[in-house]
Amino acid sequence: GNLFEQLQPAASSPQLKDNVMAMLDQVPEELAETAVKPSIDSNIPRCLQQFIPANYDELKWKRMSPSIKTAFLCSAENGAQVSLLRIKAGGKAGHHRHLGDEITVILEGSFSDEFGIYRKGDFMLHGDDHKHKPMATKDAECICLIVQDAPIQFTGFFSRLLNPLLRKNYYAY
Question: Which of 124, 75, 87, 78 lies closest to 103, judged by CA?
Answer without folding.
Answer: 124
